[in-house]
Amino acid sequence: MANLAKFDYAVLDITWKNYLTWVLDTKIHLEAGNLRDTIREENNSSSQDRVKAMIFIRRHLDEAKERVKLCGDTIIEEDMLEKIFSIFHASNVLLQQQYRARGYTEYNQLISVLLVVEQNNELLMKNHNSRLTGSAPFPKVNAAPSK
User: Which domain, by its residues, includes 49?
Assistant: First the structure.
């Protein structure tokens, strides 16, 4: 399996001419890394595995993807960052300002941070829901019953 990592394959061309072979190669490489289920809808993969698969796929896209054309307009990193900041909910204006102040210059950096924050929030909510505020504390494991 370790030798499979050495064999790389062609990136997806911006013209999509090599799409079918790229998809096949991507599926094979994801299968080799036990990440194939991450690209299926309604999968039970962990968020960590999904992120690994996304990173792997992004590495195999043409570098021209960074300057995408949308209706004749060139989309640059600053436009994508501004779009992310603009979709923050009104109740999260302070968070939006904090992320702006951090000075992200690359879309990938901001998305990575937001994914980690989302995972942390999900964990906090699971912990909160499993042990609600004000509920009785767990009994101490090493405590001996007193008479």
Answer: 1-66
